[in-house]
Amino acid sequence: MEVRDTPIKDVFEIYPKIFRDDRGYFLETYKQDVFEKYGLPTVWMQDNQSFSERDILRGLHFQTGDYAQAKLARVIVGKVLDVCVDLRKGSPTFGHYHAVVLDANLQNMLYIPKGFAHGFAVWEDAIFSYKCSNLYHKASEGGIIWDDKTLNIEWGVSNPVLSEKDLALPTLEEFEKMSGGGL
């Protein structure tokens, strides 16, 4: 398992070693000792999985307060552009984002710490899976609008399909005013 730094502190891209043969493949998607070495969570409270067709865009979502979540995201089938946005109050990279293509052929993963918004755009029909370090709590959910002009995220889909909830999310500037400067 290879853990790669990203331009944003505490966000990591993870590339497992894939053992392929004529029967298929095998890989480890989580290894406690590797996660401990990098100071990442070693206890996961919830696993989530979704299926989305091409051009679906989900996000940008986060959990606040006592229900903040770190996430370990990957795709089981397909390909997505996975994006996280730093919303940590006082962070030197506040408002910056990191994007990586999660590809079922590579089986790569993205580790997203607490204090980040998270979303993804589906490039190929995908089964998306992610572990959470905390339980989902509806009253603690929040988000940032996907097409925020300040963030200027290049999602790689020309006509994304979004939920009504995601279309009503605030801008980064509105979020900063509501939150007092971040999570």
TrEMBL record:
Highest taxon of source: Bacteria
One of the protein's GO biological processes: polysaccharide biosynthetic process
Catalyzed reactions: dTDP-4-dehydro-6-deoxy-alpha-D-glucose = dTDP-4-dehydro-beta-L-rhamnose
Any one GO MF annotation of this record: dTDP-4-dehydrorhamnose 3,5-epimerase activity
EC number: 5.1.3.13
Stored Gene3D superfamilies: Jelly Rolls (2.60.120.10)
Catalytic site: 61, 130
CDD domains: cupin_RmlC
Keywords tagged on the record: Isomerase
Pathway assigned to this chain's UniProt record: Carbohydrate biosynthesis; dTDP-L-rhamnose biosynthesis
GO cellular component entries: cytosol
Site feature: Participates in a stacking interaction with the thymidine ring of dTDP-4-oxo-6-deoxyglucose: 136
InterPro entries reported for this sequence: RmlC-like, RmlC-like_jellyroll, RmlC_Cupin_sf
Coiled-coil residues: none
Family, similarity comment: Belongs to the dTDP-4-dehydrorhamnose 3,5-epimerase family.
Record text on subunit structure and interactions: Homodimer.
Alphabetized NCBIfam families for the sequence: rmlC
Function per UniProt: Catalyzes the epimerization of the C3' and C5'positions of dTDP-6-deoxy-D-xylo-4-hexulose, forming dTDP-6-deoxy-L-lyxo-4-hexulose.
Protein name per Swiss-Prot or TrEMBL: dTDP-4-dehydrorhamnose 3,5-epimerase
